[in-house]
Amino acid sequence: MDCREALPLMHEYLDGGLKGREALALKEHLLVCPACRERLKQLEKVEALVQAWPQQEVPSGLTERIMQALPPERRKQPWWLWVRRHPAASVAAVFVLVMMGSFISLWNEDTELLVKGSDLSSVVIKGDTVYVPEGKTVAGNLMVENGKVQVDGDIKGNIVVIDGTVAMASTAHISGQVTEIDQAFGWLWYKMNDWVSTISQAK
Ligand SMILES: [Zn+2]
């Protein structure tokens, strides 16, 4: 068995549907393949993540849209045929797995301050800290990666801080939600939700 054959078996195993000869074959492969052992470990984490993910009504046709959103070379790979037959939660898990390689490496390399928002004219950046000064208003969402946020003014939207902190003065007013994400997995979760909602809104 090679790694490509092992992957769908791991999913079957996590779904509790792997028996007999296939279970044995997977076990044998895992004994000799550290890469797949690591992958299974990550899959188990993703599985736990998906379990903890709030149950949502899955819009009809979501699976098809996910398949369409994938690059064509991915769609040609045979194990995606297996994905097609599985429920949307599994699709989400598989998607995270596929993206995980690049996400994790991005996570490790990307330690520079990143500030995103639709209105950054009132935002002041000093060193690794992003300030919203008192009396100033940010008209929209604010996302900061790898930095601190000090809010003394108003934010008319949500704040998402990834791998950083947010501090609010008594003068601060934030109309939306404040989300702090400190771990790669939390970030993945956030991305997954973000991505799934993008897909479900797409026509
Ligand atoms: Zn392997």
Automatic annotation (TrEMBL):
<dbReference type="Pfam" id="PF13490">
    <property type="entry name" value="zf-HC2"/>
</dbReference>
<dbReference type="InterPro" id="IPR027383">
    <property type="entry name" value="Znf_put"/>
</dbReference>
<dbReference type="InterPro" id="IPR041916">
    <property type="entry name" value="Anti_sigma_zinc_sf"/>
</dbReference>
<feature type="domain" description="Putative zinc-finger">
    <location>
        <begin position="3"/>
        <end position="37"/>
    </location>
</feature>
<protein>
    <recommendedName>
        <fullName>Anti-sigma-W factor RsiW</fullName>
    </recommendedName>
</protein>
<comment type="similarity">
    <text>Belongs to the zinc-associated anti-sigma factor (ZAS) superfamily. Anti-sigma-W factor family.</text>
</comment>
